[in-house]
Amino acid sequence: MSGSVHQHDISGFQAFLQILRNAFVQAFNARYESSKGG
Predict the structure, then answer these.
(1) How far are the Cα atoms of 6, 22, 28, 36 from residue 14, in angstroms, in the given order?
(2) Which of 6, 7, 9, 14 falls 20 to 30 Å from 31 in CA-CA distance?
C-alpha cells in the first residue's frame, strides 16, 4: 500500500517537472523565434 502511495507521489512530482519543463521550453522557443525573426 505504501508503495502505491509513493508511486502516486512520484507521478505528481513528475507532472510538476513536466509543467516546469513545458513552461521553460515555451519561453525558450518564443525567445528563439523572436531573435530569429529579428
Answers:
(1) 12, 12, 21, 32
(2) 14
Average pLDDT for 4-17? 80
Q: What cell was used for 27?
A: 519561453
Q: For residue 18, give the C-alpha cell.
A: 513536466
C-alpha 2 chain-centroid distance: 26
For 1-38, the DSSP string reads -HHHHHHHHHHHHHHHHHHHHHHHHHHHHHHHHHHHH-
Q: How far apart are CA 6 and CA 14, in angstroms?
A: 12
